[in-house]
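Lecture 7 notes. Example A: sequence first, then its structure tokens.
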Amino acid sequence: MNQTPERINIKDLVIDTPDQPRHGFFNVQEVITDQKWGYMCSSLRADQTLRRYDSYLGLMADMVFLFPERPLPEIDPEFEKSLVDYASASFEIGKVLAGERVCRKYPTYFESHFESSLTERVKMEIEEKMNALGNLNTFYLEAAAAYKILRPDDAPKLEEKVWNEWRENCRNLAFGVKTHIAANLRIVWPEKFKDLDLSPLENELDQLKDIANLSSYATFCRSLAIIFADDIEFANHQLKIINHPKLAEPTNSVPETRRF
């Protein structure tokens, strides 16, 4: 007896193509050339010679974040000790911010120099300032991000209404402010970050070339690397970015079908 052939749904024959990784919008290897890296290393050497702790710490922290495997200029042990002591002498929230930068290179200093700054009082201050509607303070947003990096399991608790307010206001800001805010928003609310409209930022990336100051340039690159990373993770008092290999472009636009 003849049987009626089973109907085949053509949709079942199309093999889905995985999403391309997000980091294709920003490639740190392209924007920090060997020449640019050399200038940054020269700046670190000058800062060490002149004992410019703030300048050295800021640039060094961004460089090691962007290229953790790339060697930095040799640091004198005495200068390293003075640098960490200087950073740990900051007051309360300032010490949290400085500690996060130090731990990008030297996470072993966390327990001895910076853990004491993560007090319940500091945490409550960040929560109070951040959760107040209408108080979009970038200092406390950065502090919330630094606190979470250093202690992700006990980060300040922030309300959803605050996320919504930051998200709505971020899109109308200038490139520089928007970049740093968006990076910190991803750290503080990684689970909500996909809801942030990044299209205005993607269209403004060419403004990066206009930033002449090396330290500012490196900070912008760190923020952009966080924003356009495929994923982020917290480990060992540090923030890590994760990028998956870029998929090969399809050779044609005709969907592949199964043979039967």
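Example B, a different protein, same format:
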Amino acid sequence: MEMDEIHAAIEELAEHIVEPVAAKLSTEELGSILSRMNDAFQQLNIKPIAADTDFGNMAFTIFRPVQSVLGEKEFTRMVGRLKGAMVGFCQSDWTDQEAG
């Protein structure tokens, strides 16, 4: 997969993850979350992943600024969705770690 295809896929994935709660977030909050998610996936794409990587903590940190807006149930759901996506991303052949 070409780098521009990977970047587009990462952006689409981030939008898909946050889609269930996007309407509850302000434009600024949504933009910030999407930007942080894109940055995280880009880093996962280029850096070797340590065996002890805590994807749950990474996802928690990304969504933490909007926790009060979402409420506990939706916040937990979003953290779980992002964590699962990160794990799946790192197990897929999307990553370009050989080049990094």
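Note on Example B: The chain has a mean pLDDT of 89. Residues 3-91 form one domain.
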